[in-house]
Amino acid sequence: MEKVIILLAIGYAIGFYVRDRRTKEALAQQAAVRQQEDERRRQYRQENDLSDPQNQLRFIDECSLKAVPPVNWEAVRVLYTIDEWIKDMRPDWRFAFEVGMGGFIKTPYAPDDPLQKRAFNSCSGKRVDFLLINRRGQPVLVVEYNGSGHDLFADAWKAAGFRMVGHIVFRKSYSSSSRFLRYEHESAYLLAKGNVTPPAKPIPDVLDMPYSGNKLHPTQKPVAALLPLVEAFCPVGGLVLDPFAGSGSSLVAAQHLGRDWLGMELDPEHAATATRRLVWHAAKKIAA
Question: Under 8 Å CB-to-CB from 128, ≥6 apart: which residues?
Answer without folding.
Answer: 98, 99, 101, 142, 143, 144
